[in-house]
Amino acid sequence: MKLIGVDVGGTFTDLVYTDTDRGETVIHKTPTTPDDPSRGVVEGAVELCRRVGVDPASIDHLMHGTTIATNAVLEYDGVEAGLITTEGYRDILHIGRHQRPQHYSIMQEIPWQDRPLVKRRHRKTVTERLAPPRGEVLMPLDEDAVRRAARELREAGVKAIAIGFLFSYLNPAHEERAREIVIEEHPDAFVTTSALVAPQFREFERFTTAAMNAFIGPKVRDYVSHLESAMRDSGLGCDLHVMGSNGGAATAKMVAEKPILTLLSGPAAGVLGGAWSGALSGHESLITLDIGGTSADIGITVDGAFAEATARDTWIGGYPVLAPMIDIHTIGAGGGSIAHVDAGGAMRVGPRSAGARPGPAAYGHGGDQPTVTDAHVVLGRLDPKNFLGGEMSLDVDASRKVISGFADKVGLGVHETAAGILTIVNANMANAIRSRTVQKGLDPRDFALVAFGGAGPLHAADVADLLDIPTVLVPAWPGITSAVGLLTTDLKYDAVKTEFQVSTDIDLTRLNADFAAMEADLGAQLAADKVDPASVGYKRAGDLRYVGQGYELRVAFPGGVVTESVVKQVLAAFAAAHEAEYGHAFPGSPVEIVNIRVTANGEAAKIAPPSFPGGDSVEAATVHQGEAVFATPEGVTPLPTAFLDRFKLPLDTDVRGPAVILQTDTTTVVPPGWTARADAAGNLLLTKGDA
């Protein structure tokens, strides 16, 4: 099969082509077209086909990672949306849970109040009421009121409408009927329901998720539709699949209906690509570190399984979201992060960034602020003549000027200031990793650090040193790891159902029936996507908590019939998870099964594992000998440093630091005391001391 993966970034659109039959893989980068990202996707794919000499019509699948949904939320750039909800609950979206993002600040931004997804004048209420625990109808839906609300929203110019009723997660009948009425009255609107996108309890989060789906819905739907049309016009007649936040691909039709599934599309693909690269070199427990120009994304893989975000952790742009997502933590730390002095006189780095334009001073686009990239240039860790494979030259004098000016402010030498900038940004990233590992009962020393993105390999060894992580792994193509990740996954759909059963009184018949119904629904969806039933697999899980707790922990359920012994097994797993998360458990205390979940995987074709022959010798790989500045026990000191061509390095041969390893899409720094080694899978393995 011939596959193309395309990940759209802020500056470049990254593409990778693979022929699974021939084991051939080719990478490509093309400038992103911000006015219409689909144009860059199609033009890049056609150009890539031309480079490898294949007919675009012969491509079987195009896998796509997109930031359309993410940017619409972060930039508050959705459509005018409306909400129809239960009478008396008009202001749930505004009130929230009386939780403040910053508990002790008297001046703070509350996103759902400062930037409402649905303005109050567009929130309409209707009479209806369902009752727990089974969703019985207490008050029938006032259909005339729904019609009036739909007409009012249509006349107000509303383009998308979310429908969220109390307890609809128990019985979606009222929401579905209201949806039918709204479509009759406003056929041009994008209409969604809370039970469709988040059929679980917590009305504020459920309503917010539905409102966000409406807010971004038309934009994502139109983008996907336009992309499919452009693909056909260019001769790419293959299926389009879009990466979801859960680490699986979804069809274009599914994404158009539930755009909220793609909120972490690009970062999720990065975690997948990092995990794939790690597995090629025998590492299953990984910390992925994706550093770009503005931010660093951190993901965790334990024994080959991705950590998933919980209801406590799933926030996008300050809004709570009930959608399945890989647990990805993002901080403002990247090559463009600006160094500054805060009000207390302390040196800080980020989160403000110089971005792509003007970017760091070294780029020569007029940047006049000291950035992380400029610090690397001043320390000699970036080769000004071999940046982006020689396609771009760096302005060393401009970097030295901005770092020197900042050095005067902080009272340090130029090299000490540059080294201090890197020390601070590395500490910020190390602290972020601790928050996802140590604070969750995981020891980072048990993991390998996979570093990618344009700036990841520059910082990886220093970050690993701060955490005592023994191994750093740099993938073959760090700058396009997200695009590679797109070609490592399957079609993947999730279902969730609020169960509310207590361990002292489990209704096994109901529990088994609910699991079976969820698997049947997901199987039907994959069958509609023309997935071979023999290739479909199911994974079960549950959200459990002790009775009286406010939040849950997710634990796996085995497949098959759920029996009393299976329940005991699940409860034991919950106790172990609670011990790991909080440091204690309560044996014998009643446990509540809050939600049950099923994930269905439909197997898809994947990228072929790479094979690299390696070069002849380290000497032959040497581009030149130079100097780079590193922190040593004697101080910040220039040291003789070899600058090497990555793909000319011999396999399984030690390269002792200090060394700088060059390639088109990134630069890898091997500090003093570290050793790098290239393997046949194309990865660079960095270890502290002798390998």
UniProtKB/TrEMBL annotation:
<dbReference type="GO" id="GO:0017168">
    <property type="term" value="F:5-oxoprolinase (ATP-hydrolyzing) activity"/>
</dbReference>
<dbReference type="InterPro" id="IPR002821">
    <property type="entry name" value="Hydantoinase_A"/>
</dbReference>
<feature type="domain" description="Hydantoinase A/oxoprolinase">
    <location>
        <begin position="206"/>
        <end position="493"/>
    </location>
</feature>
<dbReference type="InterPro" id="IPR043129">
    <property type="entry name" value="ATPase_NBD"/>
</dbReference>
<dbReference type="InterPro" id="IPR045079">
    <property type="entry name" value="Oxoprolinase-like"/>
</dbReference>
<dbReference type="InterPro" id="IPR008040">
    <property type="entry name" value="Hydant_A_N"/>
</dbReference>
<protein>
    <submittedName>
        <fullName>N-methylhydantoinase A</fullName>
    </submittedName>
</protein>
<dbReference type="Pfam" id="PF05378">
    <property type="entry name" value="Hydant_A_N"/>
</dbReference>
<dbReference type="GO" id="GO:0006749">
    <property type="term" value="P:glutathione metabolic process"/>
</dbReference>
<dbReference type="GO" id="GO:0005829">
    <property type="term" value="C:cytosol"/>
</dbReference>
<feature type="domain" description="Hydantoinase/oxoprolinase N-terminal">
    <location>
        <begin position="4"/>
        <end position="184"/>
    </location>
</feature>
<dbReference type="Pfam" id="PF01968">
    <property type="entry name" value="Hydantoinase_A"/>
</dbReference>
